[in-house]
Amino acid sequence: MSTPVIGVLALQGDVREHLIALAAADAVARPVRRPEELAEIDGLVIPGGESTTISKLAVLFGVMEPLRARVRDGLPVYGTCAGMIMLADKILDPRSGQETIGGIDMIVRRNAFGRQNESFEAAVDVKGVEGDPVEGVFIRAPWVESVGAETEVLAEHGGHIVAVRQGNVLATSFHPELTGDHRVHGLFVDMVRANRTAAS
Known about the structure:
200 residues; alpha/beta; seven-stranded mixed sheet; 12 strands; 28% helix
């Protein structure tokens, strides 16, 4: 089977780190900014950054609606931190005019773990990731307030949900791309491979 091509939404945030992590997890990784580039990928990562800015830039670059359509059609997507917020069907405390792509039946609280100077690292047991806990880097991280019946909780920290999956859509509050541990990206690459097999 050919190597899956996975894009990283390159509007804002830690794009380079995700490209490196995806390549380490045996995917062909490329930045994506334009609607036509969405048609050339098997999966997409939405990186951390500032969710309001990513939302506005996605609309400005004309990728918001095509992205929503591809997610509805089953494109595997993985969002970290701000990417988790972008994949939520509902934000508890949205900024004015802030939109999401949606895809996961959950309510997310922005900056729930505190401000930038309250960033921290913690070991997180993630369902589907074998071996030792994943080292999670939490930077102005959201958490999930609640999930719908179709959403699977993959990890919690401090009594709060920090990793979820619904169908082909995966999201984490934390940044695994900043640790050198590529197992969460490996989990996502496996999701993309399985989706390609099912579609062929």
